[in-house]
User: Which sequence fits this backbone?
């Protein structure tokens, strides 16, 4: 398969799954401690059909714009197809890319990274990368992947203990998955991904302060910037 065809197929996958991701964003975008959403907040109707994007009662949009979500999913999947190539490990990156769109949208909206999305990524990613390593041990390193997961999760856990107002346990869980994916590639990718995540978050935070869209005491969700930093690190590999 040619590289360009693989990139196009990966992008098409992301775009096709976009409406389902929008519905997932709506279901999961609830404050911490509340169950997933099942009824329209405005009229109480139950939009049971997947991937229905409007409430059948009041016609209110459910979740973020399908165009933005589909475009983000297509772009993320295309980057994965471009940098990973036709290798079994690509399945882990595509699954993470689709989940990342839901996580970024949910964290941006309610400042929460749902366990229902983050935690399953651990066994899925480890299983796929393990099979990929058995298929071709020269493409990536499973040992480095696991070590990167432990290193980042431990480092971020200590940071969360030191500054709970800046980092949450959701960020700790998320960065472990990113360690698995970036560690498969190289230690340079791990360092670059974390560094770019902090840089993008700092720039975005400064922009929000300057435009008065956020105050000094406001909490800015870190998850979307961690995810963007990891995607940029993957693109730079």
Assistant:
């Amino acid at each position: 398969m040619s590289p360009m065809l693989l990139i196009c197929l990966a992008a098409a996958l992301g775009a096709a799954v976009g409406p389902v991701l929008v519905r997932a964003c709506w279901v999961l975008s609830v404050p911490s401690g509340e169950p997933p959403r099942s009824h329209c907040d405005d009229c109480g109707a139950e939009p049971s059909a997947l991937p229905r994007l409007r409430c059948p009662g009041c016609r209110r949009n459910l979740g973020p714009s399908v165009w933005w979500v589909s475009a983000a999913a297509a772009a993320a999947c295309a980057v994965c197809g471009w940098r990973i190539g036709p290798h079994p490990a690509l399945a882990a990156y595509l699954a993470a890319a689709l989940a990342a769109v839901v996580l970024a949208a949910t964290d941006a909206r309610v400042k929460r990274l749902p366990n229902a999305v983050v935690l399953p990524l651990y066994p899925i990613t480890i299983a796929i990368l393990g099979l990929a390593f058995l298929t071709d041990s020269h493409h990536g390193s499973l040992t480095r992947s696991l070590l990167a997961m432990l290193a980042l999760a431990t480092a971020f856990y200590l940071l969360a203990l030191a500054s709970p107002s800046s980092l949450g346990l959701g960020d700790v869980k998320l960065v472990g998955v990113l360690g698995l994916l970036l560690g498969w590639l190289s230690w340079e990718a791990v360092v670059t991904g974390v560094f770019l995540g902090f840089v993008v978050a700092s720039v975005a935070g400064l922009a929000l302060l300057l435009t008065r869209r956020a105050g000094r005491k406001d909490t800015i969700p870190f998850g979307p910037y961690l995810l963007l930093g990891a995607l940029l690190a993957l693109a730079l590999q």
